[in-house]
Amino acid sequence: MVATNPVNYGKPCKLSCAEALAAALYICGHREAAVAVMRRFKWGHSFFSTNSELLERCAPPAAESARGAPLLLPRGALATRRARPARPHPTPQPNAAGTPPAAPRRR
């Protein structure tokens, strides 16, 4: 999905909370609720027009969503991100006096 909010306009995978919620509702078959969420924003209509092809491919037909049919996403519909490997936290070392270091202060 491509963001259409003023902050991240045109950036893929950088949706606002409202855009993500609307996309989830639309994909789950709650199209009216998705439109109602985005109607609150001046730019809300552009989210559906920009992402219409992907939303339609991912959303089940109206008859299937009413029956609760399983959701099958088309291959390649969602971009995969490489996860950065987690860096291990260094083990606190005792100071010269042999006492463990104090916990860092929170701001």
Map the helices and strands.
Layout: H1 17-27, H2 31-38, H3 44-50, H4 52-58, H5 62-67
Helix pairs in contact: 1-2
Percentage of residues assigned to helices: 25-40%
| Strand residue content | under 5%
From the spread of the alpha carbons, the general shape counts as: elongated
Order of helices and strands: HHHHH
Oligomer: single chain
Spatial extent as radius of gyration: 22 Å
Low-confidence stretches: none
> So how many helices?
5
Measure the end-to-end span.
Answer: 36 Å
Sheet with the most strands, sense and barrel status: none
Number of strands: 0
Mean of pLDDT: 79
- Estimated structural class: mainly alpha
Which key terms come to mind for this protein?
107 residues
Task: Provide structural commentary.
This protein has a domain at 1-60. The protein is 36% helix and 0% strand. The chain is built from 5 helices and no strands.
Give a short synopsis of this structure:
With 107 residues, this protein is mainly α. Helix content is 36%, strand content 0%.
